[in-house]
Design a protein that fits this description.
mainly beta; 6-stranded antiparallel beta sheet; about 5% helix
C-alpha cells in the first residue's frame, strides 16, 4: 500500500502527461482539370470553385460583396469582395467567434443555410437561418471584413432564406420561405412571405403576407419556392426566387407587381434560368442551376450570381454547389439569364468593369508561416477549446479523442476541393502513443463519408493506413482498406489525388518519392448523390488519440 501511495504522489508531482501532437509542415493543393481557353476580356465559370453554395451579393459604392452558406463548418458564412464581379477575395467570415452560434452535435449539412447580404446607409446586413440551432437571425457590420455583430434573433419568422428589400421610400421589408397558409397540398409545397421590418428596433412589424403560394403555377405542384429577392426597376417590383429544389430540377423564376405587396404576376417565359431540360448525356455538363441574386453596375449592366454543379458522370459531383456568374438581359420588361436550350457558358465576356486581375489560382501552397490560418480554412462545428497553433513554420494539432465520424468537434482543419481532378498533399510528423492513434490527411464529405490517410500504429509498430467511412453502417473511424509498415519514425508525406469519381492514395518516407498505398478507390462515396446533404468535399488535416489531453 505504501508503494502505491508513493507512485500516486510521484505522478501528482509530475503533472498530467503531455497531449499527443501532430505537426504538419505544409499543405499543397493542385487543381488538375484541363483549363479552358480564356481570351482577353473573358472570364471562366465558376467564379468561385468548390463548395461555395447559395451565393448572395450586394453593391456598396464601386465594390461588390458576396456571401455563401457553410452549414456546420466553422468559421462560417465567408464574405468576399470584388471590383469586377469576376475576381473575388475573401475578406473574412461573418461567423468567426464561437459565441455567435452553436453547432454542437449538428450533422454537417445543418447549421447556417443560405445567407442574404445587403448594404444600406453605411451598414452591411446579413440575414440567415441557423437550422436546428436557433432559427432566423440578423448580423450587422460597418466593414464587410468584420467584425460582424452577434446574432439578433428574429424569432417571429419561421422557415428559411430570409432577405431584405430596401424600398426607395426608406421602408424595409423582410422576405422568407415558409410553410403555406393552412395544410400543405403536397410534399415540397412552400410559400414566399413578406413583412415590414423596423431597422431601428431590429424586428419585423405589422402583418405578414404570402406573396407566392407554391410557385409560379401551383396547379403543376411546384416544389421548394425559396431564396426570394425583390428588385425595383422602372416602377416595377420584381420578385425572383429559386424553384424546383437544389438538385437537377433547380431553376430561377421571376414575377412582378406595381405594388410591393402584390399581387405578383409570373413571367410567361419562366424559368429565366435552368438546365433541367437539357440532355443528361451532354459532355461536361453544368447542372442544378438556380438560387440567383441580381446586381446592377454603375454603368447600368445587370449581372447575377447563382449556384450550379459540375458532375463528372451522371449526377455525381464531389465539389459541391459552386458560384457562377451570368449577365442579365431585359426582354420586354423582364430580366432573363438564359433562354431556350442555351447551356451555361464556361467562358464568356467580362462585365464592363475595370479588370481586377487574374481569377483564383489552380494551385495553393500553405507553409503555415503566418500568425493565423487564412479565412478559407474551416473546422467541423463550433470549437470550445484551443487545440491548434502555428509555431515554427508548422501547424500543430493536439490529438484528441474525437473521431471524424462523430458529431463532435474533432482536431480537423480543411479547405475545399475545388476541381473535379485535384491533388492534396502534406508532410506530417506524429508519434502514435498507442494502437489506434492516428494523424494525417482526409478527403471528407461529412461525418458519415470520408477517406483518411494517416500515420498510425498497429501491433505496436508505426504504419501508414487508409480508412474509409461510407455511411452509418461503418464505425466512426471508418473501415481499414490498406496499410503499410513505416521503416522508421519521422515525417511522412501523404498525398490524395482525385480523378473525378476515382481517388488515389500515396505516401513518401523520402521527400517526393511517393509509393501508392491504394489506387482507383471509389470516389462516388464522397458525392452529394451518395452521401446526401448540401456540402462538398474538403481536404483536411486531422489528429486523433484515445488519451484525453
Amino acid at each position: 500500500m505504501g508503494m502505491i501511495r508513493a507512485v500516486i504522489a510521484a505522478l501528482a508531482l509530475a503533472g498530467p502527461a503531455a497531449a499527443a501532437e501532430a505537426r504538419f509542415d505544409w499543405f499543397d493543393y493542385r487543381g488538375l482539370d484541363p483549363a479552358p481557353a480564356v481570351g482577353p476580356g473573358q472570364f471562366r465559370n465558376p467564379v468561385l470553385t468548390g463548395f461555395y453554395p447559395d451565393p448572395s451579393l450586394t453593391r456598396a459604392g464601386d465594390a461588390y460583396y458576396l456571401a455563401t452558406s457553410t452549414f456546420a463548418y466553422f468559421p462560417g458564412l465567408p464574405v468576399f469582395r470584388s471590383t469586377d464581379l469576376v475576381t473575388w477575395t475573401q475578406v473574412g467570415n461573418a461567423i468567426d467567434r464561437p459565441g455567435q452560434l452553436d453547432f454542437t452535435g449538428l450533422g454537417l449539412s445543418r447549421g447556417v443555410f443560405a445567407p442574404d447580404i445587403s448594404f444600406r446607409d453605411g451598414t452591411f446586413y446579413i440575414l440567415n437561418t441557423c437550422v436546428d440551432c436557433g432559427g432566423n437571425y440578423l448580423l450587422t457590420a460597418k466593414d464587410a471584413a468584420g467584425p460582424w455583430s452577434d446574432p439578433i434573433w428574429i424569432r417571429e419568422v419561421d422557415g428559411i432564406d430570409p432577405s431584405f428589400f430596401f424600398d426607395e421610400d426608406g421602408r424595409t421589408y423582410l422576405l422568407n420561405n415558409g410553410p403555406p397558409e393552412g395544410t400543405p397540398l403536397y410534399d415540397g409545397h412552400r410559400a414566399i412571405w413578406m413583412q415590414a421590418f423596423d431597422l431601428n428596433a431590429m424586428r419585423p412589424v405589422g402583418p405578414r403576407k404570402v406573396l407566392v403560394n407554391g410557385g409560379v403555377d401551383i396547379s403543376k405542384k411546384p416544389v421548394w419556392i425559396e431564396g426570394p429577392h425583390i428588385y425595383k426597376v422602372d416602377g416595377w417590383y420584381y420578385l425572383s426566387c429559386a424553384e424546383g429544389g437544389t438538385s437537377v430540377d433547380h431553376s430561377q423564376v421571376v414575377l412582378r407587381s406595381r405594388d410591393v405587396w402584390g399581387p405578383y404576376q409570373p413571367y410567361a417565359g419562366n424559368p429565366i434560368l435552368t438546365q433541367r431540360h437539357l440532355p443528361a448525356d451532354r459532355p461536361d455538363p453544368i447542372t442544378s442551376a438556380g438560387h440567383a441574386d441580381l446586381v446592377q453596375t454603375p454603368t447600368g449592366e445587370w449581372w447575377a450570381t447563382f449556384l450550379a454543379t459540375r458532375p463528372y458522370t451522371g449526377d455525381f459531383y464531389n465539389t459541391g454547389r459552386e458560384t457562377f456568374l451570368l449577365p442579365v438581359t431585359w426582354k420586354d420588361g423582364w430580366p432573363v439569364m438564359l433562354e431556350g436550350n442555351a447551356e451555361i457558358p464556361k467562358v464568356l465576356a467580362r462585365p464592363g468593369l475595370p479588370p481586377a486581375g487574374a481569377q483564383r489560382p489552380d494551385a495553393v501552397r500553405e507553409e503555415f508561416d503566418g500568425r493565423a490560418l487564412g479565412p478559407e480554412w474551416m473546422t467541423l462545428r463550433t470549437p470550445r477549446s484551443v487545440w491548434h497553433r502555428l509555431e515554427g513554420g508548422a501547424l500543430r494539432l493536439t490529438a484528441r479523442p474525437v473521431p471524424l465520424g462523430s458529431l463532435g468537434q474533432p482536431s480537423y482543419f480543411g479547405r475545399r476541393q475545388q476541381h473535379l481532378s485535384a491533388s492534396a498533399a502534406t508532410r506530417v510528423a506524429f508519434t502514435p502513443a498507442r494502437d489506434g492513434d492516428r494523424a494525417g490527411l482526409a478527403a471528407l464529405q461529412s461525418e458519415g463519408f470520408f477517406y483518411l490517410l494517416s500515420v498510425s500504429r498497429e501491433g505496436g509498430r508505426p504504419v501508414v493506413k487508409l480508412e474509409r467511412r461510407a455511411g452509418d453502417k461503418d464505425p466512426a473511424h471508418g473501415v481499414a482498406l490498406a496499410s503499410a509498415p513505416l521503416p522508421r519514425s519521422g515525417p511522412v508525406e501523404l498525398k490524395i489525388t482525385a480523378r473525378g469519381g476515382r481517388y488515389d492514395f500515396a505516401y513518401a518516407v523520402e521527400p517526393g518519392r511517393y509509393r501508392t498505398l491504394l489506387a482507383d478507390a471509389d470516389g462516388t462515396v464522397l458525392s452529394t448523390k451518395t452521401a446526401g446533404g448540401f456540402v462538398g468535399v474538403t481536404f483536411g488535416l486531422y489528429a486523433y488519440s484515445e488519451e484525453t489531453p
